[in-house]
Design brief:
Elements: E1 4-10, H1 12-15, H2 24-39, E2 42-48, H3 51-59, H4 68-91, H5 104-108, H6 110-124
């Protein structure tokens, strides 16, 4: 029997304290639910928001900027905390994590699509 594979997208509203940094209690709850799924032999690919909100907090900004370059800077800073949080929570269950950053071209270019698909399959094996 083929394993089920679920893609779960968790948005910022479910992961942050009203956009002011990560809500680690909420993230821990999501991790526990994902762990339960993996114990049921379901492969999970997690797509997560939250990096910008965490970056805004880490940078000490009082509000979300409109400028794309500032948003990208916040995302770059916040991504570190987001991934660190997931890594530490999943590690408690001996589950390895990985991060894959995709661009539109990864999904529209046939060669790149095949490459990313093979990488994902290897990570899930």
């Amino acid at each position: 029997m083929t394993k089920q594979r679920w893609v779960i997208k968790i948005g910022s509203a479910l992961l942050t304290n009203d956009g002011k940094g990560l809500d680690t209690t909420s993230i821990a709850s999501w991790v526990e639910q994902i762990v339960t799924l993996t114990k049921q032999d379901i492969e999970v690919i997690l797509v997560s928001s939250g990096a910008i909100a965490e970056g805004i907090k880490r940078l000490g900004w009082n509000e979300r900027p409109d400028d794309i370059h500032k948003l990208q800077a916040a995302a770059a800073v916040g991504q570190m905390g987001l991934i660190q949080t997931y890594e530490s929570l999943f590690a408690k269950h001996d589950i390895h994590t990985a991060q894959i950053l995709l661009t539109h071209d990864n999904l529209t270019n046939a060669d790149r699509y095949e490459n990313i698909s093979s990488t994902l399959n290897n990570l899930l094996d």
